[in-house]
């Protein structure tokens, strides 16, 4: 206490003495003038010498090195944190080439030096709003460490999810998409790339705005996490809508016997996601020769992955869709369709980890917005959550 009071008192005294000196005799200011003159001359000589040495001995390198040595003082120290903690906002400033390059980086050391809880990335490919959002909110509730969400919508669409929503700030930088064109695959790759930025995302599910979950989160998570295979639909279909869409000039990268077809709505693991976004071998062929009416989104990933990693594929999708009504588009389920009968009907015959099962589907489409209310009301009965 005392010393603090004392020192501030000294400062006050110093101020007083400066004021007094200013009005004192001339010899002192002459001395000061001489001192400044000497200082100026020394400074001039020094700068002349240093200019000379820089010009003739290239000493500017020394200056540069000295500068670069100082830089780390002004930057944040390197840490793992920035790489492993995902950003709460899915938006970023990277363009596609920067994003795809960044998300193709794969660690070579297999053991993580931190606790990594593998998550499912739910990737919504939508035009604009997500009419089924309240049902998804209910589905996700209580499983916060096990999922992440990404939305690709029309670039003009302005999302308006409230801050409390799981969809808040989950829109990624997006571009226009045309049905059945390469821009559709580009959007899917863009979603995968964004989801790959989060090192904890291990499985990647593509969904549309008309999709709903058919089971509760725990069952869905377990089903995907315990599967030996990724759920990419891939089959060889003779006839005009299968092999008929193959173009001879896609050879030798893709032979006719390697041509596959499958549902656009897939689930892939991290390895396959990286393979998809870093592919430069098959992409040009599909872009050039799979043109309408080829529907590239039904062929590119199934064909490419069937050639590269057939042993990793279940060759089926887990997203149910009803083609029984015929026509070019599948059936849409509305309010009147939301009955116990519908969900009993959604079963099939398939294999899970090489065992036959009737539990083939985790998601279903297409549901119209007016189906939301009866689904929400009866979700515990029909969907188990
Ligand atoms: C992304 O930005 C980089 C650097 O400005 C540029 O070289 C590259 O062509 C851009 N890529 C795209 C797809 O716009
Ligand atoms: C999927 O199909 C490929 C051939 O394209 C095959 O090698 C693979 O074993 C199939 N997967 C399963 C789970 O049967
Ligand atoms: C098909 C069905 O069971 N619908 C039910 C959904 O929930 C509402 C409200 O609880 C019931 O009135 C419906 O019968």
From TrEMBL:
It is a single-pass type II membrane protein. The keyword Mitochondrion does not apply. One of its GO terms (molecular function) is glycosyltransferase activity. Its main location: membrane. It comes from the Eukaryota. It is found in: Membrane. Keywords: Glycoprotein, Glycosyltransferase, Membrane, Transferase, Transmembrane, Transmembrane helix. InterPro entries: BC10-like, Glyco_trans_14. The chain crosses the membrane at residues 32-54. The keyword Cell membrane does not apply. One of its GO terms (cellular component) is membrane. It holds the Pfam family Branch. This is Transferase.
